[in-house]
Amino acid sequence: MLRTGSRRLVLVVFLLVLAVAGWWILSARRFMEERVPPGATLVEAGFITRREDARMSVVKVLELVGESPASWQEAARNAVQEAARTVDHITGMEVVNWTAEVSNGDIRQYRANVKVAFVVDNSRRQARPTA
Question: What is the value of pTM for the model shown?
Answer without folding.
Answer: 0.52
